[in-house]
Design brief:
alpha/beta, seven-stranded parallel sheet, 733 residues
Length: 733
């Protein structure tokens, strides 16, 4: 959609090198087409003023407001010791709130003359806090003079588009640049098939581009938006539908479990019955495994819903059918843990070829980067001879040296931690493409799954196995109510005295060189002026203070793998009472005796991450407790997020909240290998219907014409969406 032939003109030819350079570096805009697809974030109406009451901290904003008063102060400073320093303070208002503007030094003269009380203007700058009040320092501004001919022309039309801008390029300058290239919009090639456009009453693409940038009425904006949303949804869904269509043409070996084989023997050992959800999902997976093209399935389930068991049964079914299964885990700790729990669950069925192994047994091998040479050689040998039916490992599985006898199924744990390239490399190890099962414990709303993982069929496990305990979650406002924090440590001590264990999670390790410039600062950090709490400091304070006499250990990502494993083993064995850790424990750590978790500086974690962490407690028969400690003020957005996490245990609900609060680009950004998001207009959560309808249209279109021979406009749009990097991304998905 970006690079339509007539719109490929580089911006430096049209706008001049200086402006083009800023647009390329700060906004990622290189061509006329890119600029035309840089849509206004919102519109100002002449008679209306932005709400100063809800300005976001630390962001570049553009506001239309009126000057209420302006005062020039003189002061003494190092540069102007004799009281010659000048500071201009201007207060602007819009009826909903007031905002302070400040100008210093030589920069005060022009605004002092121009910003008189009653003057209206557009102001742009970065919102900061000074003396607990919001302000813009040295904002750029453009006066809105109703009388001057030129100004009226420049702002013709009652609706003023406000563009996503940067410090180097204000919204109105972007608006003027768009004015220059707008005539090219007439030459935009329409990617939507005519029948679809007419059937849904959508305006043409040139028309939509004109109306989005120069609307005369609100209806213009609505019409343009719904058309541009359709473009984005449809082109993306066509890309995914073609992907699925191509996959369906690939050959794969059907894997049907042998009756009375390993799987039957394993099921007989299980001390519990499967939940209805596990049975339903298993049927979906087994049906896919029995077909002669590769399964591509996403298995998402709440933390602790029993995904690993479902995956293990699929692996055993493939071994029964004469193939091998590989499980790819994101970290060594997790790979070792999966290996331990699989071997425990299988018992003598995991001891193929060994004394005491059952007759239908297979070998389950572990392969990680830090294994000793002898153990590694043996594991590689067991894989190539087919002696080992199941291998569990980290990236080490992907290396060239690793060869399989007959790889039939790849299970990837925690999709979002794996590059598509790695999944692809492992899939290349089979004689024919193996079946693929991707597991994630971060529940994804259906629309996101359709947009990001549209090439995977989705199975959802949403009921918890019997015997899992509910988790009570509470926010602990450490700054407003310090005694609440003291009580939190008492609660941890009580859990330990009752024979249980606890986690304390911190955002930072604490042994890094603190470079204040390097630490990423959000506005909230700025307001707080303190770095995030660190594992090493907190562990030290707890051992000396509120948890003295309790056995406390630390765990973080920079420890040697053997040390990490030893710490986890001691904690799992109940030898350690409290584990102070970073988010290394976020995924997969299973200690049923751990009942409490205290998350320090909880506002510095995302909603899904908090939900993920919380799932580490309450895994046994005793109730779980999760305390979210934060110093953020009650009215802040951060506290709102924490209240949402405390209020529900439903991961799908939380993932929607999370998405609504993050920008859409992040959703696709992480999945599309960091390329600029293709979604500028579409919001995955709100536009659920459009995405579902676009998917249906795309599937029908691709089934009828996989090569899109009759739709050159759509092919062009696909090429633009799937530049090299994205094309490879989807190809490997």
């Amino acid at each position: 959609m970006d690079l339509v032939p007539a719109l490929e003109e580089p911006l430096k030819k049209v706008l001049g090198p200086a402006t083009a350079k800023v647009m390329a570096e700060h906004l990622g805009l290189l061509t006329v087409g890119d600029l035309l697809h840089h849509y206004p974030r919102r519109y100002e109406e002449r008679g209306q003023l932005t709400h100063l009451a809800d300005l976001p901290m630390d962001e570049h904003v553009t506001v239309v407001a009126q000057v209420a008063d302006a005062r020039l102060h003189t002061f003494a400073s190092a540069k102007a010791p004799r009281g010659k320093g000048q500071r201009l303070e201007v207060t602007i208002t819009d009826g909903s709130g007031r905002l302070q503007l400040v100008f210093f030094g030589h920069g005060v003269h022009k605004p002092h003359k121009e910003l008189l009380p009653g003057t209206r203007a557009l102001f742009a700058g970065k919102v900061s806090v000074f003396n607990r009040r919001l302000q813009l320092a040295h904002p750029a501004y453009e006066l809105l003079r109703g009388d001057s001919e030129e100004a009226v022309d420049a702002w013709a039309g009652a609706l003023i588009p406000i563009y996503p801008a940067t410090a180097k390029l204000e919204s109105w300058k972007i608006g003027k640049a768009i004015q220059t290239v707008l005539p090219s919009a007439q030459e935009a090639v329409d990617p939507l098939p005519e029948s679809l456009r007419e059937g849904r009453g959508l305006v043409s693409l040139p028309d939509a581009l004109l109306k989005i940038h120069r609307p005369h009425t609100k209806a213009d904006i609505e019409g343009a938006r719904s058309r541009l949303k359709w473009d984005e949804a449809f082109v993306l869904q066509v890309a995914l539908a073609r992907r699925r269509h191509a996959d369906a043409q690939l050959p794969a070996v059907p894997r049907k479990p042998a009756p009375d084989g390993l799987l039957t023997a394993f099921d007989a050992r299980l001390p519990f019955t499967l939940t209805d959800g596990q049975r339903k999902v298993t049927r979906e997976i087994f049906d896919d495994l029995a077909t002669d093209h590769p399964m591509h399935r996403l298995l998402q389930g709440e933390v602790g819903s029993g995904k690993t068991l479902v995956a293990l049964r699929a692996m055993l079914a493939v071994v029964d059918a004469g193939g091998q299964a590989a499980m790819l885990a994101p970290t060594e700790v997790l790979a070792q843990q999966h290996h331990r729990s699989v071997v425990e669950m299988m018992g003598e069925l995991a001891e193929g070829g060994m004394l005491g192994g059952a007759e239908r047994a297979t070998k389950v091998v572990l392969l990680t980067g830090s294994m000793g040479a002898a153990a590694r050689r043996q594991a590689l040998l067991d894989l190539v001879t087919g002696e080992a039916g199941i291998v569990i490992g980290t990236h080490a599985l992907i290396e060239d040296k690793v060869q399989f006898h007959d790889l039939g199924l790849v299970v990837v744990d925690e999709q979002h931690r794996f590059g598509v390239e790695q999944r692809d490399a492992l899939r290349g190890k089979g004689k024919q493409p193996p079946h693929l099962l991707v597991m994630t414990a971060t529940p994804i709303p259906r629309t996101v799954a359709m947009t990001v993982f549209g090439d995977l069929e989705t199975s959802v496990l949403d009921q918890l196995p019997a015997g899992r305990s509910p988790i009570a979650s509470h926010v602990v406002p450490a700054a407003d109510k310090p005694h609440f924090l003291a009580r939190a440590w008492e609660r941890v001590r009580e859990e330990v005295e009752n024979g249980h264990q606890a986690y304390v999670v911190c955002p930072r390790i604490g042994d890094e060189e603190d470079d204040p410039k390097k630490a990423m600062k959000s506005a909230e950090d700025e307001a707080e002026k303190r770095p995030p709490l660190a594992v090493l400091d907190v562990a030290d304070q707890l051992s000396k203070g509120p948890l003295s006499g309790v056995k406390v250990e630390v765990l973080h990502g920079r420890m040697h793998p053997d040390d990490k494993d030893a710490v986890m083993r001691r904690f799992a064995a109940g030898e350690t009472d409290v584990l102070v850790a970073t988010t290394v424990i976020e995924v997969g750590v299973n200690v049923p005796n751990a009942t409490a978790m205290v998350i320090m500086d909880a506002d510095r974690f995302g909603v899904s991450q908090l939900h993920q962490l919380r799932g580490r407690v309450g895994r046994g028969s005793a109730a779980g407790l999760c305390l979210l400690v934060s110093e953020m003020p009650e009215a802040s957005a951060a506290r709102g997020r924490l209240n949402a996490v405390a209020a529900t245990l439903d991961g799908f609900e939380l993932s929607r909240i999370d998405l609504e609060q993050r920008r859409e680009g992040d959703v696709l950004g992480q999945a599309q290998s960091g390329t600029r998001s293709s979604l500028r207009m579409l919001t995955v959560i709100e536009d659920e219907e459009i995405i579902a309808e676009a998917r249906e249209e795309a599937v029908a279109l691709v089934a009828a014409d996989p090569d899109l021979t009759r739709l050159p406009g759509l092919r062009t749009a696909l090429d633009a969406l799937l530049d090299e990097e994205r094309e490879q991304y989807l190809d490997k998905g």
